[in-house]
Design brief:
There is one protein chain. The protein is of the alpha/beta class and about 325 residues long. The protein is about 40% helix and about 20% strand. It has a ten-stranded mixed β-sheet with strand order 2-1-3-12-11-4-5-10-8-9, sandwiched between helices. A two-stranded antiparallel sheet has the order 6-7. The longest helix has 17 residues, at about 140-160. The chain is globular. The protein binds adenosine-5'-triphosphate (ATP).
Length: about 325
Amino acid sequence: MLVTLIKGDGIGPEVAEAMKKVLKKAGSKVVFEEVNAGETVFKQEGTYIPDYVYKSIEKNKIAIKGPITTPIGHGFRSINVELRKKYDLYANIRPIKAPGPLDLKYDNVDFTIFRENTEDLYAGIEEKISDDEYHSIKIITRKKSERIIKAAFEYAINNKRKKVSVVTKANIMKLTDGLFLECARKISKDYPQIEFEEILVDNCAMQMVKNPSQFDVLVTENLYGDILSDLGAGLVGGLGLMPGVNKGDNISIYESIHGSAPDIANKDLANPTAMILTACLMLDDIGEIEISQKIRKAIYKSLSFKENYTRDLGGENSTSNFTEKIIENLGA
Ligand code: ATP
């Protein structure tokens, strides 16, 4: 199976190499077609996303990418947003679960956030009214709300989840969030076996901090989803551990939540877990489930010893050494 690999900027190349090594040693059949996009490519080729990157993604339909530094003042608002829009990758799926026995406040957190990825305040429609007044337009449509909500319910069914919570602020934004909630109420009726819950975003944030194990699958708009998934990441060990994927009907781009972390780039300090777990989500989807389970177990085992921790987890270990530990534990 051919998969497009975009290593990206900053720590991207380091964590991508770690991911490739682990998949190979675990016996994955995935073959990576490596292309690059981002700041490094811009410096060499004068464009952030060369044509061959689009061609590779369109041919393979599945891509995995490292973080890309957001360009300031050159064309795109964000390369990630550009790719999501171009391929209509409407579902940003972020599983929130600790990948090892970490020293956390809660040890039973296991929920997945479905974030609508293409509209809301991220539509980028802003206008200047005067020097003292600016507007940003929030777009919510029935079609785009329905498809993300359906995707969340289908995920719940396919993954034996019990509850879907729709997160809005429909008491205040009666039209936009009201429409999202109305779509959720309607679609929930098609899934009587799944418990349906409505929750306001402010309460959801508090509940997530107080009692996160009550959540199972959450579905929400773009901005709320972005904030809640970082909150969720904080509950289970931080950005260096959290995988993610952006899915459309035909194309999926797998990417971790974290950015390019320029502060630690090229120093062998990054935690490769997020990138490796992101690859595990891909392996699950292409049917290499035994391999992904083997890798998850190896990560769990590797995180059972504090001396293996990278700096983001409070340890001293390097990217390369932690990767070796995971590889050692593949057979365990
Ligand atoms: P962006 O705008 O691209 O999201 P950012 O600076 O807001 O960038 P990150 O690049 O994710 O966010 O970095 C936030 C902090 O988390 C930084 O201090 C960074 O070093 C740390 N960090 C992010 N990812 C990792 C990782 N994989 N391993 C270790 N530390 C990480």
